[in-house]
Amino acid sequence: MSGPTLEQIAKGDGLALCAAGSWTARFAPALEKLVGEAEKLTGSRPNIFIDVSQVSKLDTFGAWLIERLRRALTNGGHEAQIAGLSANYATLVDEVRRVKPAVPLPASGSALTAVLDGIGRNIYGIGETLVALVDMIGAVIAAWFRVWRHPSKFRLTSVVHHLEQVCWNAVPIVVLITFLIGCIVAQQGLFHFRRFGADVFVVDMLGVLVLRELGVLLVAIMVAGRSGSAYTAELGSMKMREEIDALRTMGFDAIEVLILPRMVALVLALPILAFLGAMAALYGGGLVAWLYGGVDPSSFLSRLREAISINHFIVGMVKAPVMAMVIGIVACVEGLAVQGSAESLGQHTTSSVVKGIFFVIVMDGVFAIFFASIGI
Amino acid sequence: MTSTTATPITETPTGAASTSADAIISVRDLTVAFGSRRVLDGLNLDVARGEILGFVGASGAGKSVLMRTIIGLVPKVSGTIEVFGTDLDGGDKERRDVERRWGILFQHGALFSSLNVRQNIQFPVREYLKVSERLLDEITMAKLTMVGLKPEVADRYPSELSGGMIKRVALARALALDPEIVFLDEPTSGLDPIGAGDFDELVRTLQRTLGLTVFMVTHDLDSLHTACDRIAVLGNGKIIAQGTMADMLASQHPWLREYFHGKRARAVIG
């Protein structure tokens, strides 16, 4: 297969451009260069023939470039014609002759306006996110009351299924991680408290920290990453494949069928996981205090009893269902916002986890202020 | 380039519906199994250059499996597949050379959902050829015009297209590098009769203008009737019959009689 060539031969007051060789996609870069040079042809000769009789092979790329050359020369004030087409290739050239000039891409502004544009859109997006969240909270509460009035609508099987996914299956990893965090907190506490002989206060620190804050916060973050993302991906791919539309047309409410069971499962699961997590962290901390700090289990327990009251425990556990609701609402809003593409699914799953964790921490701050104000 | 000069077949100008004897795809003793279930069992098939081969068979008979085996998506147990005279079990380089000379239209289009139509069509071109943005855009427009779509479609995303448009864009993408063979997996399924008829016409036109060889898996009797030069029938993991539509109608094989003389077939063929 020989490469393409384009020769110029003067003929009287005309000019012949003789194309030869393979005018195919394989040689597209070389062809483009040849045609680009020929397009710049100017001169006194009004008649130009593009002779393609020597072309051994022609495909869409070659045919288009010949057609483009003809158009450029015609626009330059020449009388350009294509000659020597075989019957097979004539149809191909006719086909590309119908092609209109490419639509130019919409002009994108400068880099600075693009940045400002992005910032503006993001800020506007925050408002939209809040509206979508409030909307979803309203829809879930409304669905809850509908189910309350007609308990037969409650999807127990679905709730149990999701409870298995988000609670039972999460137990090992949640317990392992909180156990390790408990160990680390106790070790760090001992290491620093020992310097001024306050070893035993490590138990106070561990008890208050784990029961009030760490247990529930850590577990909520883990659940947002583990189950929030799963909810978004599930709902998002159902949305992509029009399954949610199908449900609607059958007279089902997507909130009742898909979202309420998930929310209920999550609201039940998070307190259970937070409790297990807190216990695992205390156990881990106690173990380190005993083995590393020499605080034996019985004095650990009696110290713990003095240091913490039931209030600490309640403060921790009260937060759990609220955080579960926040995670669930964010995950469902993001899931239903997925558009048709795989990229969109990825973006919304990411933002489900990011926003879920962000709102969990914000809620934790709000609770801290609230409990400080009422004095517990 | 060197591999193609070795096969003089590729130099012949590919013309209108030439059913010349040289086989562009040649499958010999192909066996494909999933676990212990043999889907294809010693299958032989030749596809001639420039023809449109319609490939039929009962649902689940392995039509798509054969197509996917030829294009290398399903591993085979034994047998040889030669495309353009190159054994596909040869080196990776030979295989890649062959791969850029065929285009595939998947059953559901398989457009990249995060790219728009323009980017979908340009994707293979960008990957294989170093050409300017201008030529890329022009070629995209040429392909869109060829498959009968308006230029405005170029900036839409696959999720914003109708079923028929997805098939057309997918065909434009399959044709992006001007392949010599296109594989079509049920190209007219899910299209309305007018759209399906247009699509058959389009395949015919493209085959004439570009000298394509078309391997079409289909259930559409209209397509078989109007678009295909030759029909091959798959059954029990083998080709049970091949020939023109007239041969199929004359065949006494019970499944073929039912397929081509059933109620639906009579409505089409009359």
From TrEMBL, chain A:
<keyword id="KW-0472">Membrane</keyword>
<feature type="transmembrane region" description="Helical">
    <location>
        <begin position="357"/>
        <end position="375"/>
    </location>
</feature>
<dbReference type="GO" id="GO:0043190">
    <property type="term" value="C:ATP-binding cassette (ABC) transporter complex"/>
</dbReference>
<comment type="similarity">
    <text>Belongs to the MlaE permease family.</text>
</comment>
<feature type="transmembrane region" description="Helical">
    <location>
        <begin position="166"/>
        <end position="188"/>
    </location>
</feature>
<dbReference type="InterPro" id="IPR003453">
    <property type="entry name" value="ABC_MlaE_roteobac"/>
</dbReference>
<comment type="function">
    <text>Could be part of an ABC transporter complex.</text>
</comment>
<keyword id="KW-0997">Cell inner membrane</keyword>
<dbReference type="Pfam" id="PF02405">
    <property type="entry name" value="MlaE"/>
</dbReference>
<feature type="transmembrane region" description="Helical">
    <location>
        <begin position="313"/>
        <end position="337"/>
    </location>
</feature>
<keyword id="KW-1133">Transmembrane helix</keyword>
<feature type="transmembrane region" description="Helical">
    <location>
        <begin position="270"/>
        <end position="292"/>
    </location>
</feature>
<dbReference type="GO" id="GO:0005548">
    <property type="term" value="F:phospholipid transporter activity"/>
</dbReference>
<protein>
    <submittedName>
        <fullName>ABC transporter permease</fullName>
    </submittedName>
</protein>
<feature type="transmembrane region" description="Helical">
    <location>
        <begin position="200"/>
        <end position="225"/>
    </location>
</feature>
<feature type="domain" description="STAS">
    <location>
        <begin position="27"/>
        <end position="99"/>
    </location>
</feature>
<keyword id="KW-1003">Cell membrane</keyword>
<dbReference type="InterPro" id="IPR030802">
    <property type="entry name" value="Permease_MalE"/>
</dbReference>
<feature type="transmembrane region" description="Helical">
    <location>
        <begin position="123"/>
        <end position="145"/>
    </location>
</feature>
<dbReference type="InterPro" id="IPR036513">
    <property type="entry name" value="STAS_dom_sf"/>
</dbReference>
<dbReference type="InterPro" id="IPR002645">
    <property type="entry name" value="STAS_dom"/>
</dbReference>
<keyword id="KW-0812">Transmembrane</keyword>
TrEMBL record, chain B:
<protein>
    <submittedName>
        <fullName>ABC transporter ATP-binding protein</fullName>
    </submittedName>
</protein>
<dbReference type="Pfam" id="PF00005">
    <property type="entry name" value="ABC_tran"/>
</dbReference>
<comment type="function">
    <text>Involved in beta-(1--&gt;2)glucan export. Transmembrane domains (TMD) form a pore in the inner membrane and the ATP-binding domain (NBD) is responsible for energy generation.</text>
</comment>
<keyword id="KW-0813">Transport</keyword>
<keyword id="KW-0067">ATP-binding</keyword>
<dbReference type="InterPro" id="IPR017871">
    <property type="entry name" value="ABC_transporter-like_CS"/>
</dbReference>
<dbReference type="InterPro" id="IPR003439">
    <property type="entry name" value="ABC_transporter-like_ATP-bd"/>
</dbReference>
<dbReference type="InterPro" id="IPR003593">
    <property type="entry name" value="AAA+_ATPase"/>
</dbReference>
<dbReference type="InterPro" id="IPR027417">
    <property type="entry name" value="P-loop_NTPase"/>
</dbReference>
<dbReference type="GO" id="GO:0005524">
    <property type="term" value="F:ATP binding"/>
</dbReference>
<comment type="similarity">
    <text>Belongs to the ABC transporter superfamily.</text>
</comment>
<feature type="domain" description="ABC transporter">
    <location>
        <begin position="25"/>
        <end position="261"/>
    </location>
</feature>
<dbReference type="GO" id="GO:0016887">
    <property type="term" value="F:ATP hydrolysis activity"/>
</dbReference>
<keyword id="KW-0547">Nucleotide-binding</keyword>
